[in-house]
Specification:
single chain; Rossmann fold; five-stranded parallel sheet; alpha/beta; binds xanthosine-5'-monophosphate; 526 residues; GMP Synthetase, Chain A, domain 3; nine-stranded mixed sheet
C-alpha cells in the first residue's frame, strides 16, 4: 500500500526529525516547531540513523521521557546520529542521553525541580539570542526532571545554569549539538519558543517553508504525480473538516477525475446533510454523488441497544454502501481519505507512551476495498488542516465544525435509535449549539452537544402532568480529546438552553448538565 506523503524524498521542504522517547510533551514540541514554520516529523526513539537520514533532516530533536538514563532498558537512540553532521537539540531526557553518549556525566538529581525555576544565561549566542533574554540574563524555565548533568561532555560549554547550579543548557558550537534541561515547548516557559526558533533558524539554518500555501502546492503536485494522467480517485466525503479539505485538494489537483461520495446515514446533526449537499453540489458539479441511505441505516439499527453493536452496524453498513457505489463506477484506482497526523503516529512506538484508544471511524475505509490509498493530510494536525482549509477557501461553517463521531447521533441516543428520537435530539442539539454560539463560546469549547438519555421522568407542562425523556447537555474543553474537562458554562447560558429545549420540544421533560471530566468519563456517552 502506498502511503501518500510519507515518501519525503521528493520534497524540498526543510524537516526536523523529532525522536520521541515518550515524553509527555513530544507532540507539543512538534507543534511548536511547525508553528515556527518548519516541518517536523515525529519518529520512534530507536529509528536507525540510516532511516533518519532518508528524511534529510535539517536538525534532530531528542524529546524528554518519563525514563531515567540510569534505569534498565532506558530508551536509547542510534548513536550514529551524533556523527551525522546534523544539528541536535536534546530536551531534558534528550540532554541527559546525549551527555552520557558523548562522554559527559549524568547523576540522579538530589532534588526535583518541578515547575518554575530561574536560570542565568552565560552564553547568549545562539540559543538565547533574543531581546527579552539579552536585557535580563535571568529567565524562568519550566523544569520537570530528576536527573541532571554533572559534567558536560568534552567540547561542550555551559550556556545557562539554574539558581541551584544545575546545568540548564549546554552546547558544543562546533558540532552544533545542544542540550536543554528545561522544556522550551511548554507554555509556562517564557521565551521558550524563541529558544526553539533560535535552534531552528540560527543553528539548523531553516527558513519558514512550512505554510498552508506551500503545503497545498506540494500536496496538489504530489496528488497529480501519484495519480498520473488518466486514473481516477474516489473520496468519502462526510462534510467534516478533514474530508472536506481532502475534497478541495483533489478537486484542485484532478478536477473531474475525482469523484466524491457522500453517504447520508441520517445520523448527522440538524440541517447538516442539506448543507453538505448544497455546498458540494455547487462546488463539485458532476463529481458529487449523494447517497440517501437514511432508511437503510435505521432499518439495520432498529431495536439494537448495545453501544458497541450500534457502532459495528454503522461501520459495516457504511462500508457496504460506499463499496456498492464506488465499485459500480468501474475504473477507479485510488481511494482518498482524511487521515490526519495524530491518527498516524504509531501508538506505543515511543517508550512508555500510553496506548491510545482507537475509534472506529465511519469514514475510515479498509484497504481491502482494493483501491490504493491517498491520504494527503497524513502530515497535519487538526488546526493545521483548518489553516489549509481556510487557504483553500472552505466556508467557516465547515472549517469551524466541532469534531463529530463517525457513528453520529446514534452514540448520543442512549439505547435504541429511531427516526423520532433522531428528530428530537437534532432539535435539542441545535438549540444548545445556538445558545453556545450566541454566548460567543463556540471556539473556546472542544465539543458541545446534547444527548438523548433513555430515562423518562415526571414533570409539569402547562397545568398537566408530563412524562417524557431527559436531555443531557455536554460541553468540554480539551487539547486533543485524550483528556477533557467539563466546561464551566454560566448558569445563565444553561438556563436559557434549558428553557428553550423544554419549551420548544414538547416531549422533553427535563434538562441536565453533565459535570464529568475525562477521565473518568468519556466525551461521548456511548
Ligand atoms: P471519547 O468519547 O472516547 O471521544 O472521549 C473522544 C473524541 O473522539 C470522538 N469519537 C469518535 N470519532 N469515530 C470518530 O471518528 C468514533 O467512533 C468516535 N467515537 C468518539 C468524540 O466525539 C471525541 O471528540
Amino acid at each position: 500500500m502506498e502511503h501518500f506523503l510519507t515518501d519525503n524524498s521528493e520534497s524540498l521542504r526543510e524537516k526536523i526529525v523529532l525522536l520521541d522517547f515518550g515524553g509527555q510533551y513530544s507532540m507539543l514540541i512538534a507543534r511548536r516547531v511547525r508553528e515556527a514554520g518548519v516541518y517536523c516529523e515525529l519518529l520512534p526513539f530507536d529509528t536507525p540513523w540510516e532511516k533518519i537520514k532518508e528524511y534529510e533532516p535539517a536538525g534532530i530533536i531528542l524529546s524528554g521521557s518519563p525514563a531515567s538514563v540510569y534505569q534498565d532498558n532506558a530508551p536509547r537512540c542510534d548513536r550514529a546520529i551524533y556523527d551525522g553532521g546534523v544539528p541536535i537539540l536534546g530536551i531534558c531526557y534528550g540532554m541527559h542521553l546525549l551527555t552520557g553518549d558523548l562522554g559527559g556525566e549524568v547523576k540522579r538529581g538530589s532534588r526535583s525541580e518541578f515547575g518554575r525555576t530561574s536560570f542565568n544565561i552565560e552564553e547568549i549566542e545562539p540559543l538565547f539570542k533574543d531581546a527579552s533574554f539579552r536585557d535580563q540574563s535571568f529567565c524562568n524555565g519550566w523544569m520537570s526532571h530528576q536527573d541532571e548533568v554533572l559534567k558536560a561532555p568534552p567540547g561542550f560549554n555551559i550556556l545557562a545554569r539554574t539558581e541551584n547550579d544545575t546545568m540548564a543548557a549546554i552546547g558544543d558550537h562546533n558540532r552544533k549539538i545542544y542540550g536543554l534541561q528545561f522544556h522550551p515547548e511548554v507554555f509556562h516557559t517564557p521565551g521558550g519558543s524563541n529558544v526553539l526558533k533560535n535552534f531552528l533558524y540560527e543553528v539548523c539554518g531553516c527558513s519558514q517553508t512550512w505554510t498552508p500555501r506551500s503545503f497545498i502546492k506540494d500536496a496538489v503536485a504530489k496528488i497529480r504525480q501519484v495519480v498520473g494522467e488518466r486514473e481516477k480517485v474516489v473520496c468519502a466525503l462526510s462534510g467534516g473538516v478533514d474530508s472536506s479539505v481532502v475534497a478541495f485538494l483533489l478537486d484542485k489537483a484532478l478536477a473531474d477525475r475525482a469523484v466524491f461520495i457522500f453517504v447520508d446515514h441520517g445520523l448527522l446533526r440538524f440541517d447538516e446533510a442539506e448543507e453538505v449537499v448544497r455546498l458540494y453540489c455547487e462546488k463539485l458539479q458532476g463529481q458529487f454523488i449523494h447517497v440517501d441511505a437514511r432508511e437503510r441505516f435505521l432499518r439495520r439499527l432498529a431495536g439494537g441497544t448495545d453501544p458497541e453493536e450500534k457502532r459495528r452496524i454503522i461501520g459495516n453498513e457504511f462500508i457496504g454502501v460506499f463499496k456498492e457505489n464506488a465499485l459500480s463506477m468501474g475504473d477507479i484506482v485510488y481511494l482518498a481519505q482524511g487521515t490526519i497526523y495524530p491518527d498516524v503516529i504509531e501508538s506505543g512506538s515511543a517508550y512508555g507512551s500510553a496506548v491510545i484508544k482507537s475509534h472506529h471511524n465511519v469514514g475510515g475505509l479498509p484497504e481491502e476495498l482494493g483501491f490504493e490509498l491517498i491520504e494527503p493530510l497524513r502530515e497535519l494536525f487538526k488546526d493545521e488542516v483548518r489553516l489549509v482549509g481556510a487557504e483553500l477557501g472552505l466556508p467557516d461553517s465547515i472549517l469551524k465544525r466541532q469534531p463529530f463521531p463517525g457513528p453520529g447521533l446514534a452514540v448520543r441516543i442512549i439505547g435504541a435509535v429511531s427516526a423520532e428520537k433522531l428528530a428530537l435530539l437534532q432539535k435539542a442539539d441545535a438549540i444548545f449549539r445556538d445558545e453556545v454560539y450566541q454566548a460567543g463560546l463556540a471556539e473556546e469549547l472542544w465539543q458541545y452537544f446534547a444527548v438523548l438519555t433513555d430515562v423518562n421522568v415526571v414533570g409539569v407542562k402547562g397545568d398537566d402532568r408530563h412524562y417524557g425523556p431527559v436531555i443531557a447537555l455536554r460541553a468540554v474543553v480539551s487539547e486533543d480529546a485524550m483528556t477533557a474537562d467539563w466546561a464551566r458554562l454560566s448558569h445563565d447560558l444553561l438556563e436559557k438552553a434549558s428553557i428553550r429545549i423544554t419549551g420548544e420540544i414538547p416531549e422533553v421533560a427535563r434538562v441536565v448538565y453533565d459535570v464529568t471530566s475525562k477521565p473518568p468519563g468519556t466525551i461521548e456517552w456511548e
